[in-house]
Specification:
Radius of gyration: 16 Å
Number of helices: 8
Distance between the termini: 19 Å
Number of strands: 8
Number of domains: 1
Strand order of the largest sheet: 1-8-7-6-5-4-3-2
Largest sheet: 8 strands, parallel
Oligomer: single chain
Mean pLDDT: 96
CATH class: Alpha Beta
Strand content: 15-25%
Low-confidence stretches: none
Shape: globular
Structural class: alpha/beta
CATH architecture: Alpha-Beta Barrel
Order of helices and strands: EHEHEHEHEEHEHEHH
Length: 228
């Protein structure tokens, strides 16, 4: 399992220290939630922070664009140092999502598409073979600290099934309410990357929390594979 702590839940006054903790604890990615106050009802990080993060950490930056005009903003974040950029299916007009994926790949970054809880998995079908990763939102995007939506594990399983039908193999990332108790639910269905917010940064020992979430997810994946 890859663990991608979300700095939306970090202590932004101590972000350098938080980054160092994430590196030392074995986190694989840094998840950066970009919200524009339009596509989602919150306003968060922008290009200057992504650029500074890229200079401050060796961890890959997993940039999640929750914006209403992703095609316009993509070049900014790609130039700033994003390793992976996620664009929401719901934010793209007809024909825009393939263009966004191509632009990300042309810049040498990994391309991902996200779907909200109410968005059918089938909307990914036309582009699934082009994607490096699918992000299944297990809460409504916009705010940290929300509770995991129980149907999310089934949605992960549907993504796995659709990918298998197409001969595709994107990573599957899950974001929202993920912690020690919920990580096994999605990991057992095929999730590869877990985004953790409060489960890490609100813990008494964030480093131990990262290890615990990873261990619980890995255990569930091994059990699921053994039972096949």
């Amino acid at each position: 399992m890859k663990i991608a702590p979300s700095i939306l839940s970090a202590n932004l006054m101590e972000l350098g220290r938080e980054l160092a903790m994430m590196e030392e604890a074995g986190a694989q990615w840094v998840h950066v939630d970009v919200m524009d106050g339009h596509f989602v009802p919150n306003l968060t990080f922008g290009v200057p922070l992504v650029r500074q993060l890229a200079a401050a950490t060796a961890l890959p930056l997993d940039v999640h664009l929750m914006v209403g005009n992703p095609l316009e903003q993509l070049p900014w974040y790609l130039e700033a140092g994003a390793y992976s950029v996620t664009v929401h299916v719901e934010a793209c007009a007809e024909g825009e999502l393939p263009r966004a994926i191509e632009a990300i790949h042309e810049a040498g970054a990994k391309a991902a598409a996200a779907i909200k809880p109410a968005t059918p998995v089938g909307t990914l079908a036309p582009v699934l073979s082009m994607l490096d990763m699918v992000l299944v939102m297990s809460v409504e995007p916009g705010f940290s600290g929300q509770s995991y939506i129980p149907s999310s594990a089934v949605k992960v399983a549907h993504v796995v099934e659709l990918a298998r039908e197409q001969g595709a193999s994107p990573l599957i990332e899950v974001d929202g309410g993920i912690g020690v108790e919920t990580a096994p639910l999605v990991a057992a269905q095929g999730a590869d990357v877990l985004v953790c917010g409060n489960a890490v940064f609100a813990a008494m020992d964030p480093a131990q929390a990262i290890a615990a979430v990873g261990a619980s997810g890995d255990g569930a994946r091994r059990s699921a594979m053994t039972s096949l």
